[in-house]
Amino acid sequence: MAERVRFHFDPVCPWAWQTALWMAGLEDRGEVEVEWRLFSLQLVNADGDNPLADRHAAGTRALRALALVRREVGNDGVARVYRALGTRVHDRDEGMTDDAVRGALSDAGLDPDLVEQRGDPLGGLALTRGLAVAVVGRVDPDQLAAELHDLGRGVVGGLRSRV
Question: Could you tell me which residues come within 8 angstroms of residue 24 by beta carbon, excluding any fewer than 6 positions away?
Fold first, then answer.
């Protein structure tokens, strides 16, 4: 039986993308079942001086579109859009633009106009709730997700294996 893994990602993060490729490969081989969860580097770094603030902010529309995809299509839709978006943004260097998000939605067989639904409050709520779970939620220490814990607060780090 495949191990369930919660994988939190921000589509602007190249390290999350590289790890997601590895996780998708494990999922394709039936070794894990991935629950793709959203994580906002912009929200988590909102307090203080963030030299990557502009880059992190560029992913907001993509995250909102992914939140709407989760609501309307579910985990499989998020996986398809993230794969298509990561290919465009990280592999083809298209940049995190509205056109890249629209193209990824289309590549995933979904309505590219989801990127225009930025005023949908559910998208923001889903994003904030997902981030709260990622930051303060508990994770099984044997899980292959990229989460470590320090005094009950989740810390995102590089992928690790069992200790």
Answer: 34, 79, 83
Rounded (10°) CA dihedral 71, 77, 83, 88: -70
Residues across the chain: 163
The per-residue DSSP string of 77-144 comes to HHHHHHHHHHIIIIIS---S-HHHHHHHHHHTTS-GGGGG-TT-HHHHHHHHHHHHHHHH----TT--
Report pLDDT digits (tens) over 93-145: 999 999 999 999 999 999 898 777 655 444 454 555 555 444 444 433 333 23
**29 DSSP assignment:** T
Q: 118, 64 in Cβ contact below 8 A?
A: yes
Which residue has tokens 């930051």?
135
Closest CA to 66 of 129, 6, 126: 126
Q: Tokens 């939140």 label which residue?
A: 67
Distance separating alpha carbons of residues 40 and 121, to the nearest angstrom: 16
Task: Give mean pLDDT, residues 2-12.
Answer: 89
Amino acid identity of residue 158, one-letter, is: G
Q: Which residue has the tokens 């978006």?
A: 85
